[in-house]
Automatic annotation (TrEMBL):
This is Alkene reductase. Gene3D superfamilies: Aldolase class I (3.20.20.70). Residues 3-332 form the NADH:flavin oxidoreductase/NADH oxidase N-terminal domain. It comes from Streptomyces paromomycinus. Belongs to the NADH:flavin oxidoreductase/NADH oxidase family.
Amino acid sequence: MTSLFDSFPLGGLRLPNRLVMAPMTRARAAANGIPNRTAAAYYAQRATAGLIVSEGVQPSAQGQSNPHTPGLHNDAQVAAWRPVTQAVHANGGRIFAQLMHGGRVGHPDVVGYHPVAPSAVALKSELFTGPKGRRPAPVPRALSTAEVRGEAGVFADAARRAVDAGFDGVELHGANGYLIQQFLSSNANLRTDAYGGSVAGRIRFAVEAAEAAADAIGADRVGIRLSPGGTVWDMAEEDVPGLYGALFDALAPLGLAYVHVLATAEEELLVALRKAWPSAFILNPGGQIGPRPGDQESGEHWLGLGADLISYGRPYIANPDLVERFRAGLPLREADRETWYTGGDTGYLDFPSHQY
């Protein structure tokens, strides 16, 4: 029987176990997108994970969503990431950068750019903009057909910078209501050109972004995260089985390292998607942010259903030694939610490993 503690080959890597640290926004970067000075220690503390996926990193200034998030679109940001990746590798770990383009989940008050999206449909929510507090989401500017191809290329540019910064690969954020899922959706994408309307049109941008990143750094260094049927940031998707079945079919020939799926759909559909996917399948049992994060039992359940790797988000905040705690059956700490995005080292670096 497959165990969470078995090794696994992923692309050109050999993971020592099947636990993945999921990407989590921590909102501690400088205003210029430079990762905070203690990010190296934060990620190095968690290097016993089979794989770390970084917090969401904006692949362009236009693509920034939240304030105080890091970037990978200029040389200074690349240089600032190198000590982080070096610290993870020095501790025996492996780390991918998650490339997260916010699309319509953005505000001019954050970086001075008006957000772009598949269509001029505003998010029905307020966004945190920093010193000015929460502001209504603006109506985004709809990308022209010619511009869409350029936004796919943004992921390729950031992927090259990620490898230059020492990351082992990249994960495209196609989940949780950001740009890639906005193209997949039926309420944020009202286009009538080649990037909208039919299922083939709505999956086109996701496939082109993945193709561009794979061409830039090699498919075995590229993964993509998806949330089938997920409703974060006002998302709605019609015919979820048909949409994601077609998307998986279109992505499969690219030879990507993995697909990273949140448990946002019925188990039957997720198992079918697992069976349809030819390479590594990462499952996050926590699904959308809710009252109950994923646990060891749910991870083992999904391994039994065919998942190759299990990702954990919130448990990794307060338990940098999560692998060891699961292995030894030790209790898990809980992090204070009030410290998730508040900056500084409190709730970030102040969780030592278990002392026997």
